[in-house]
Amino acid sequence: TVQAISMQGVYQRMSSNVPTPFQQLKDISIGPDDNELILRGHVKQDIPKDKKIVMYITHLRVHIQLNGQDIYHEEGDGYTWWDSFDSPGITPKDELVIHLQRTTDSDYPEALALWLRKFSSGETYALLLHQLQHNATKIIISSMLLIIGIALLFSMSILRLFKIDIYEQFFSCAMLLIS
Questions:
Q1: Cys-Cys crosslink for 174: which of 113, 114, 133, 152, Cβ 3.0 to 4.6 Å?
Q2: C-alpha gyration radius of the chain
Q3: How many degrees, rounded to 5, is the angle at CA 11 between CA 70 and CA 104?
Q4: What share of the chain is helix, strand, coil (3-state, %, to 5)?
Q5: How does residue 23 score in pLDDT terms, banded at 50, 70 and 90?
Q6: Greater confidence, 53 or 171?
Q7: What angle do CA 46, 36, 79 make, to 5 degrees?
Q8: At 93, phi and psi to the nearest 5?
Q9: pLDDT tens for residues 87-145?
C-alpha cells in the first residue's frame, strides 16, 4: 500500500523569515508567489529501511536531509514525474529537513502544494495500481478516442484503395483523435 507521510515541525516560506509550526503537511499554507519552502521536523511513524519514499515532482528542486546527511537531491529540469528512493530507516526521533524550490522556468504555482500532497511511502507497484484506479476513466476515454481515430484512418485508407473520394477533413479528424 501507499500512504501519505505524516510529519510535524516548522516550515518557512522564503517570502517570510518567520518559521511557522505545523502538525500535518496539509496545514502548510502556500501562496502563489511562494517559490521556496523549507520544512524541518519529524515523521509521526517509522519508515522502515529500504521502504520506498515516493513523491510527485513538478518543476521543483528537492533536497532532503536526515539528521544532517543528504538522502535525496534532485535539481529539477522542468519536467513532471514520480520519483522514489529507498528509506534509510526514519524514526520519529530523527530530524528531517526538506528544501523545496520551484525551478526558475516554472510558472506553475501549485508545484509546492502538489508535492506536499503526494509525499508518500510504499511500494512503487502499489502506487502504479493506485494511479491506474484513480485515472481509470481518463485512460478508458483516451483509449477509445485512439481506437476511433485509428479505425477512421483505416476506413479512409480502404476508401482510397477503391478510389472513392473522401474529404480531407476526415484525415484531419482522424489525426486529431489519434493525437
A1: 152
A2: 23
A3: 70
A4: 35, 35, 35
A5: very high
A6: 53
A7: 85
A8: -80, -20
A9: 999 999 999 999 999 887 667 778 888 999 999 999 888 878 888 888 899 999 999 99
Q: Which three cell numbers stand for residue 31?
A: 501562496
The strands making up 120-122's β-sheet, listed across from edge to edge, are 2-4, 120-122, 52-58, 80-86
What gap in Å lies between CA 68 and CA 51, rounded to an integer? 20
Instruction: Give yes or no for a contact between 41 and 24, defined as CB atoms under 8 angstroms apart.
Output: no
Q: What is the pLDDT of residue 139?
A: 92
Asked if the model's pLDDT at residue 166 lies above 80, the reply is: no
| C-alpha–C-alpha distance, residues 55 and 10, integer Å | 20
Helices (H) and strands (E) in the chain, counts: 4, 10
| Element spanning 136, H or E | helix 136-161
pLDDT value, residue 63: 97
Contact between 28 and 37 under an 8 Å Cβ cutoff? The reply is yes
- Amino acid at site 97: V
Q: Model-level pTM? A: 0.77
Burial class (CB in 10 A: 0-12, 13-18, 19+), 4: middle
CB 97 within 8 A of CB 40: yes
| Spatial CB neighbours of 59, under 8 Å, sequence gap ≥ 6 | 76, 78, 79, 80, 102, 103, 105, 106, 108, 111
| 8 A C-beta contact, residue 115 and residue 62 | yes
